[in-house]
Amino acid sequence: MNILKAPIRNRVSFWSALIGMIFLSATSAWAQAPQPAAKPRPVILDTDIGDDIDDTWALGLLLKSPELDLKLVVGDYGKSQYRAKLLAKFLQAVGRSDVPVGIGLDVEPRGEGGQSGWLKDYDLKTYPGKVHQDGVKALIDTIMNSSEPVTLIAIGPSPNLAAALAREPGIARKARIVGMYGSVRVGYGGSKTPAPEWNVKADPKACQKVFTAPWEMTITPLDTCGLVFLEGERYSKVRDSKDPVTALIIENYGIWSKNKAQKRSSTLFDTVAVYLAIHQDFCVMERLGLRVTDDGSTVIDDSANRIATATAWKDLDGYRDFLVTRLTTQ
Questions:
Q1: Which residues share a beta bridge with 313?
Q2: Is a pLDDT exceeding 80 seen at residue 31?
Q3: What is the pLDDT of residues 268-312, one digit of tens each?
Q4: Cα-based torsion angle of the residue sequence 245, 247, 248, 253 in order, rounded to the nearest 10 degrees
Q5: Which residues are within 8 A (CB) of 234 and not within 5 positions of it... i.e. 6 or more apart?
Q6: What confidence tens digit (pLDDT) does each residue in 97-124 have?
Q7: 20 to 30 A Cα–Cα from 328, which one of 150, 170, 204, 229?
Q8: Distance (Å, rounded) from C-alpha 94 to C-alpha 129?
Q9: Could you report the per-residue pLDDT of 137-150, keeping only the tens digit for each?
Q10: Which residues on neighbouring strands pair with residue 312, listed in sequence order?
């Protein structure tokens, strides 16, 4: 058809269709073009690394998560030199000595733990990065000096956090907590009876201060994190990975488990807190009033602070696949 000799209505339809095709083509090209990555969120890790091995898995996952910009790591709940050395050696071994290490409060318990064999003669003074002798002050300064809100990933008991709130209550206005805390409706091993969970029970008074502070708070209790482990093909992929971070996790897991780490992981509680600092898609989230009792229980109380709580899994296998992909992608 000669468009110039066609009736006006046909010419209008032709040009409308042509313009539509051009618009759709441009839109499609824009959608397929690389989009600017979201700016990584500044985070601090407060951890009792060196007791249960799940903290080491969580540190590895954090380092493998481009959405998160790790500004500081601090050991919590005693064993201050042991935890600082473990953090420093791990970071140094994977080329991340740009991350400062904070020495936490030197409270009970003292001594070392199940990964001490990996440290051997490691000297904290050899760490190429910054080591803060006062980890609580470093935590406060990192939050207060940040130009944007800081996500504080808390995966251990809370003496450092309670001390930081006492020294500078203003941190609650400039940070949010994403933590592994509590047992709401489910206990250890999937039990239908809630139980005092370790990170709360170890220092209930400190945890009460954390739960009542006026910051935004998100937690994974045993209801979700207590169900996470890797086995079969998923675990084999992680175990056999050549990624430097993941290989270091497995090396430490072998030491911690006395070389019983060939077939499956232990329960990976703390990895879920790192995940919740990135996404929440795999979890059922409820905003619950939660109160910490003196015996370390976390009970629903409508008069308590509302906390975003991962109370169940929408897709536990999806989370496991996410974890494996993150840890094995070089």
A1: 283
A2: no
A3: 999 999 999 999 999 999 999 999 999 999 999 999 999 999 999
A4: 130
A5: 320, 321, 324
A6: 999 999 999 988 999 999 999 999 999 9
A7: 150
A8: 13
A9: 999 999 999 999 99
A10: 284
Q: Are 86 and 255 in contact (CB under 8 A)?
A: no
Cα–Cα distance, 253 to 241 (Å, whole number): 14
Please state, in angstroms and rounded to a whole number, the distance separating the CA atoms of residues 200 and 204: 5
Q: Residues 123-135: pLDDT tens digits?
A: 999 999 999 999 9
How distant, in Å, are the alpha carbons of 74, 157, 166 from that of 160? 9, 8, 10
Q: How many residues does the chain have?
A: 330
Which among 141, 142, 41, 48 is positioned nearest to 87, based on CA atoms?
A: 48
The three state secondary structure string of 204-267 is HHHHHHHHHCCCCEEEECHHHHCCCCCEHHHHHHHHCCCCHHHHHHHHHHHHHCCCCCCCECCC
**Tokens 């990964």 found at:** 115
Contact indicator for 270, 55 with CB cutoff of 8 Å: yes
The residue whose two tokens read 């600082």 is 84
Distances (CA, A) of 286 to 90, 308, 310, 313: 35, 6, 7, 12
Does pLDDT of 64 surpass 90? yes
pLDDT band at residue 38 under the 50/70/90 scheme: confident
Q: Walk me through the domains of the chain, giving residue ranges and CATH numbers.
A: 1-31 (no CATH), 41-328 (3.90.245.10)
- pLDDT score recorded for residue 37: 58
